[in-house]
Design brief:
Largest sheet: 6 strands, parallel
Distance between the termini: 19 Å
Number of strands: 8
Oligomer: single chain
């Protein structure tokens, strides 16, 4: 109660603030370099991050085997599900290992679909914004994400929300994108890149300074 204004990382945090205090949601910063969208040669889906059960690792692999149009599912990272991922590799599922950030970005720019399918039932998701969504969007692919309260609603028209949080639902969502014609794919990715470009550090600094000087809620 000693503070005049607040900057939080997720909408759900507003519920814990003193009533009437100005508040700004600042979910994250996008990388300054945004990849120019281009048609992908293969139907590749990719996940980069922690290999934890809660991140939908098993569901991704099961969905890859159910998908009719996928060429490959790429997974990189480390975590509790590492041995499971390694044991599941085959002609569709590829484990890329633990990569540097530049290597991850290079692979992401080749993928048509980028996956963020954390379990939406986990309470933590309403208090955090998955920063990989911004990274994914700058790579020029289409993001499939589970519905997480920590992702502001303004993102909804620029990512594909996974309404059916099952392997079948994810396979259907992936095939919808893999079956998309090139013109529509480019239209969607160009729109997403234009949206995320406004999340860069310079623009975010202006947003914060404006909020601190003028107050209000956004």
């Amino acid at each position: 109660r000693r503070f005049d204004k607040y900057i939080v990382f997720a909408e759900a945090m507003r519920e814990y603030l003193p009533e009437g205090k100005p508040c700004m949601v600042l979910e994250g910063f996008a990388p300054e370099t945004v990849q120019k969208p281009q048609v992908r040669e293969k139907n590749i889906a990719m996940y980069a991050g922690g290999l934890a059960e809660d991140n939908g690792i098993r569901m991704m692999i099961e969905a890859a085997h159910k998908s009719e149009l996928i060429d490959e599912l790429w997974i990189c990272g480390v975590g509790d599900c590492l041995e499971y991922v390694k044991s599941a590799t085959d002609n569709k599922v590829k484990y890329l290992g633990r990569l540097t950030n530049s290597e991850v970005l290079s692979y992401e720019k080749q993928a048509k679909i980028l996956l963020n399918v954390r379990n939406p039932q986990n309470d933590l998701t309403k208090f955090s914004f998955p920063s990989k969504v911004l990274e994914y969007m700058t790579a020029g692919g289409i993001v499939i994400s589970s519905e997480l309260r920590g992702i502001p609603k303004e993102y909804n028209e620029h990512i594909e929300l996974l309404k059916d949080y099952t392997a079948d639902g994810l396979a259907i969502a992936m095939d919808k994108i893999f079956g998309m014609d090139d013109a529509l794919f480019l239209k969607k990715t160009e729109s997403a890149c234009a949206f995320v470009a406004a999340k860069g550090p310079n623009q975010r600094a202006i947003d914060v300074m404006t909020f601190l000087e003028q107050g209000g809620s956004k």
